[in-house]
Amino acid sequence: MSDTPLLDVRGLVKHFPVRSGLFGHSGDAVRAIDGVDLQIAPGETLGLVGESGSGKSTLCRAVLQLVEPSDGSVRFEGEELVGLRQRELRPLRRQMQMIFQDPYASLNPRKRVDVIVGGPLKLHGLASGAELRRQVQELLARVGLAPEHHTRYPHEFSGGQRQRIGIARALATRPKLILADEPVSALDVSIRAQIVNLLADLQDEFGLAYLFVAHDIGVVRHVSDRIAVMHDGKIVEQGSADQVCERPRDPYTRKLIEAVPVPDPREARERRTAAGR
Amino acid sequence: MSGNPLLEVSDLAVSFNTEEGLVQAVDDVDLQVGPGEVLAVVGESGSGKSVTAMTLMGLTRGPNTTIAGRASFEGVELVAASDEELRGIRGNRMSMIFQDPMSSLDPVYRVGEQIVEQIRAHRDVPKDEARRRAIELLDAVGIPDATTRADSYPHEFSGGMRQRVMIAMALSLEPSLLIADEPTTALDVTIQAQVVDLLRQLNQSRGLSIVLISHDIGLVAEVADRVAVMYAGRIVEQGSLDEIFYDPQHPYTWGLLGSLTRIDRPRPRRLLQIPGAPPSLLSPPQGCHFRPRCPHAFERCPQTPGLEARLPQAPRHLDRCWLESEAKQELQP
Question: E-assigned strands of chain A?
Answer without folding.
Answer: 7-19, 25-40, 45-49, 71-76, 79-80, 96-99, 177-181, 209-214, 226-231, 234-240
